[in-house]
Write a structure and sequence with these properties.
The protein is mainly β. Helix content is 9%, strand content 36%. Strands 1-2-4-6-9-12-15-18-21 form a nine-stranded parallel sheet, with no helix packed on it. The chain starts with a helix and ends with a strand.
């Protein structure tokens, strides 16, 4: 990290302030261009994505606490047809797209927030809230044209919130909350669910017995 910033004329005192809060930029002009390498080789957890950022292979994030953010309009920064799986708690994701046959976002942990994330044209589910993850929040996200459900919520995942999301034209349900107990999910805003193959024509939501839905 220090080599990149020093080369680009950032003063040491500025670097000292940034250091605890930003590992670096992933993109054409970053120390890494590949997000996978930044996390698995560089050990980065606090990442800003920029133009030219790539994801060379499926990525599993097991460390706790971090962020991956891009300040672009929704669906503008496309990382391609890869799967991101998060098993560590306390992450924030923002501003990037996963698109194509191998794309997916799977959450197996707690306290995850996502804003302006898109998963489009995946072979299976767009977003899978797996295992017993709780307190997962998604705002202004897009899950569209995926082969399975737009969003699938596992039996023991609870306290999930969707706000102002678009969940359209998926091959399965828009949102599929599997059999379980507790609060599966809450739609707390103007979410749009249209054109999904399974479920009611208006929403495409399936909530199995034992789930609470608001």
């Amino acid at each position: 990290m220090s080599t990149y910033w020093e080369t680009n004329k950032i003063k040491p005192e500025t670097l000292a302030r940034l250091g605890p809060f930003l590992d670096g930029i992933v993109g054409t002009n970053g120390e890494y261009q590949d997000l996978y390498a930044a996390i698995n080789t560089g050990g980065w957890k606090y990442i800003m994505l920029a133009t030219g950022a790539t994801l060379s292979q499926d990525l599993t994030i097991s460390a706790a606490g971090g962020f991956i953010v891009a300040f672009y309009p929704t669906e503008s920064l496309n990382l391609g047809a890869k799967k991101i799986t998060i098993t560590g708690n306390y992450w924030h994701l923002e501003g990037f797209k996963l698109s194509g046959a191998g794309a997916a976002l799977e959450i197996q942990s707690n306290n995850i927030t996502a804003s302006r994330i898109a998963v489009v044209s995946a072979t299976s589910h767009g977003l899978y809230l797996n295992t017993s993850g709780t307190d997962l929040s998604f705002s202004q996200c897009v899950f569209r044209s995926n082969g399975g459900d737009g969003v699938r919520i596992a039996t023991t995942s609870s306290r999930n919130r969707f706000t102002n999301c678009r969940i359209d034209n998926n091959g399965g349900y828009g949102i599929n909350a599997l059999i379980g107990s507790g609060d599966a999910a809450a739609i707390a805003g103007a979410c749009r669910l249209t054109g999904n193959t399974s479920g009611s024509h208006s929403t495409g939501v399936k909530v199995d017995t034992g789930n609470n839905w608001t």
